[in-house]
């Protein structure tokens, strides 16, 4: 194969499979990557289990959607505040502190599930509001940890490896979302909720491995103390950074209008059948798409028009989201036969079609994520990187929860198939319009990154 150049202009041979060079170049990054991968599996296991437990208690999709809705504002605030902390203090210290708090919240969820198991034997169930509180704390601390951890990457890796590192992080996310929810569905069906949450308590400790191995990462240059002025400086920076601002906008559109996860428990009963096991398969489908994109991400260093690549990836995401909505519509109309809550009553045709549609959304979303993350880590100066990463994590973590709330509300007003079908169509239209109206976004070139 002929030699080419990567984002930095350094010679590099073209390849299709993921480039593992960042793991070899930086053992520190390798430990961080492994630790966060293991921790993330437990986090997705718990997120899936919480939704299933709330649906089991309330039989309400809207109550499941509130898991994201209640956490939304705190997560956005945590992203902003966590970003300011990452710019003002040692990023390693910030990550360790927030990880400890997140582990304690997971322990709280385990205690609640254990209590519910005891009460359920007596015909009583726990109140759901403590589940919302602990899940929100978990989401808030995860957002803050991720902001500090991600902002550290350009300090522990040469800049020419950043795009390849973000592709590796895509494999991490794909593995987490593929394994965690599937494991949750199987464990809940076989062992119950308490043991499922206990597994996350154990897996969460792996997150400390990578963080403790980080070097000290104090602020570079002028220290921006957390507070109103730091926030104003961050907002002022975004006002002068149209490309960074647009990367947030397009992701919010995709996540708020194309997020069907809160519908999965109801779909597993009403449209496809299979109950909790189907929920695990549907959630894993998107993750497998993410994982496949990461595995075949070897050419990401050769793509330079990131704005165009992100926009097209999100439009493809909208197409697959709409196709998933059509499958749900068909299931509810009986196109695939009778279904039931037990997995023996699942419609295999509907499950396979839904799985393929969601696999497509996961693959397209990861293409977008790789280039958005690379843009933030290479175009933004270090002294502002914590705050922009904080906002990025707020969008990444808060956007899906806004999507859960939008989906749950839409179902309450219309029907189960409406959010993905209509949302996918609107995503395509809005992203196409923004791409056409934003020449600077279309012209973004990774070889000369500009905010």
TrEMBL record:
Gene Ontology molecular function terms on file: transmembrane transporter activity
Domain of life according to the entry: Bacteria
Pfam family, one: MFS_3
Keywords: Cell membrane, Membrane, Transmembrane, Transmembrane helix, Transport
Entry GO CC: plasma membrane
PROSITE patterns: MFS
Membrane topology category: Multi-pass membrane protein
Location(s) in or outside the cell: Cell inner membrane
InterPro entries: MFS_dom (IPR020846), MFS_trans_sf (IPR036259), TM_effector (IPR010290)
Signal peptide extent: none
TM spans (from-to): 32-55, 61-82, 94-114, 129-148, 168-191, 197-217, 263-296, 308-336, 348-371, 420-437
Gene3D superfamilies the record matches: MFS general substrate transporter like domains
Main location class: membrane
Domain annotation Major facilitator superfamily (MFS) profile: ranges: 199-451
Protein name: MFS transporter
UniProt lineage: Bacteria, Bacillati, Actinomycetota, Actinomycetes, Micrococcales
